[in-house]
Design a protein that fits this description.
By secondary structure, the chain is α+β, with helices and mostly antiparallel strands. The protein is about 20% helix and about 35% strand. It is built from 3 helices and 9 strands; from the N terminus they run αββαββββββαβ. The strands form 2 sheets. A 7-stranded mixed beta sheet has the order 6-5-8-3-2-1-9. Strand 1 and strand 2 form a beta hairpin. It is globular.
């Protein structure tokens, strides 16, 4: 059994307070602006919590094998430069809306309700830097249209 004198108690209290602050601050620091995104539509502004994927490996996996996605969740694919891209739904278990967005944050094209497990190519049709995947049908619910905008920390940021 460890016994300490009263002179040591204030040190322990300060250490406990410091640890409690660190436990709150560390998760907040880990949440970057890259985890938040806003779609601006004629019907309002809609916030999403997104995971950014920006490497060939993370983009290849995407939302494969995901069983559910909250209405305000999604995945943002960053291709680092504008180019034509194409997606498919192999090993994807939930319907998704694919929103193709230029480097300036302007929505170029939208593919609504991509079918799970479908290997048909879904092209961007125009050069884009970003593709946002959100739950199937959600873009219709919020009134998203080509020409609307996406606000995110990576929009307008120079490529690494």
């Amino acid at each position: 059994m460890f016994i300490f004198d009263q002179g040591f108690a204030p040190v322990l209290r300060r250490a406990a307070v410091a640890m409690a602050i660190a436990m709150v601050a560390l998760p907040l620091a880990a949440c970057s602006d890259e985890g938040k995104l806003v779609l601006h539509t004629a019907t309002g502004d809609y916030g999403f919590n997104v995971e950014v994927v920006d490497t060939p490996e993370s983009r290849a996996k995407g939302l494969m094998f995901v069983q559910e996605l909250a209405d305000d969740a999604g995945m943002l694919f960053d291709f680092k430069e504008e180019r034509e891209v194409s997606f498919w739904m192999r090993n994807t278990f939930i319907p998704l809306d694919m929103i193709f967005v230029g480097s300036d944050g302007v929505v170029k094209t939208i593919h609504v309700n991509a079918r799970p497990h479908d290997v048909t190519s879904i092209p961007s049709e125009v050069p884009v830097q970003f593709v946002l995947e959100i739950p199937g049908g959600r873009s219709v619910e919020i009134g998203l249209e080509p020409g609307d905008t996406m606000e995110h920390a990576l929009v307008g940021k120079p490529a690494d």
